[in-house]
User: What shape does this take?
Amino acid sequence: KDLKYILPPHIWALQELDKIKQQKLWQNGNVKLYYSQLSDVLRSYIELRFKLPAMEQTTEEIMTSLHKGVVKQKLKEPLHQFLSMSDFVKFAKAQPDLNDNENAIHIIQDFINQTKPLEKEQTEKPK
Assistant: This one.
């Protein structure tokens, strides 16, 4: 079974980020794979958490979908930076610096931690 659909989205996504971190992809020169995997986890999380078709959307479409009622503006800024950077790496062969690579995973972790359901929401599972 795919844990993605069994676990709460934030738990699944944070576990995936840990796996990516352990692979040390960008440290071993696999920058494009690193950003692809991070982007996939982020997009899957957005899809599962906010019920948006993020896997099929462009960065700009995702940012538009995550309007004010969905995600606070201050959370969108770093997200937009990450997704744009990710696009540049994947499609324009950009080589981000070490800080960008290090920050990329933290941006996503922060976003997940800031947008995960509150404990109360989680315990009120429909019977």
Summary: The helical segments are 9-23, 31-50, 59-65, 73-92, 98-115, 119-123. The two ends are 22 Å apart (CA to CA).
